Amino acid sequence: MNAVAPVKLHDCRDAFVAVLERLGAENDRVVAVCNDSVGSSKLNGFKKKFPERLINVGIAEQNMVGVGAGLANGGMLPFVCAAACFLTGRSLEQIKADISYSNANVKLIGISSGMAYGELGPTHHSIEDFAWTRVLPNLPVIAPCDSIETAAAVEWAATYPGPVFLRLSRVGVPDLLAPGHVFVPGRANLLREGGDVTLIANGTVTHRLMKAADLLAAEGIQARVLNMATVRPIDREAVIAAATETGAILTAEEHSTYGGLGSAIAEVVVDAAPVPMKILGVPGVFAHTASAEALLDDFGMSPAGVAEAARALIARKTR
Length: 319
Description:
Elements: H1 12-26, E1 30-34, H2 44-49, E2 54-56, H3 61-73, E3 77-83, H4 84-89, H5 92-101, E4 107-111, H6 129-134, E5 141-142, H7 147-159, E6 164-167, E7 189-192, E8 197-201, H8 206-217, E9 223-227, E10 230-232, H9 236-246, E11 249-256, H10 261-272, E12 277-282, H11 292-298, H12 303-317
Parallel strand pairs: 1-2, 1-3, 3-4, 4-6, 5-6, 8-9, 8-11, 11-12
Antiparallel strand pairs: 5-10, 7-9
């Protein structure tokens, strides 16, 4: 019997910094700002190549965001990098006033998002950041599903004349999209056709939905799978098509079930195409301490858990 080759996993931070270093070589306006997180943001290569364009403010996240806004006002192109939990939680007022309200051309890079810091516990889980950022005007909120989409999203963000929040995990994920993928904000990617139910996710959870779809297919259930990287603006057209064509939508996210991707999709569903819907995520509690993968499993987002929830959702269609 031939051994099955293991699936290669990619750290999306590597894709981010590869593009950032290239952009830095092409454009001397590109700068990186961080909060004593050169290592965890993987900025050592950028620092070595462009030492005068790496600004480390220390553990001072509010100041960090303000510095980023000031650099943008001075004509620079700042990428502000920090752990997502601290970037958003500690600096929300500055993100609101200095970045979003001012429409400053700052790229906010939330590193190690979701429950990627698993063993460090609730203080380091970033399961509120979608809710905090997606309500702010002028701020696209993006969680790429793999390294290919990460690179494409960074390329797009560098050309977009306004603020962006890009959410990146440190947990390895397989590549799902084709090489050369072009990121389009507000557009979902159809990863799998299906007419019985639609599964929607982004970030580290997307590949789990693909595995769940395989489990369902073995039972004759055809699940549509959408990668919804952009939480704001949401792809209304794809959501409405999913609702009308499959009759049920299940979402899964490395975030609270309140205010995140599922909530954004539910807002479209209730307004335009009401169908049975289920939101998987952290159900309004502080996530406990465990590995990131174990936490996703514990909150029902293993492939088997997603498949089970999808079966229950399909049953609601037939009542």
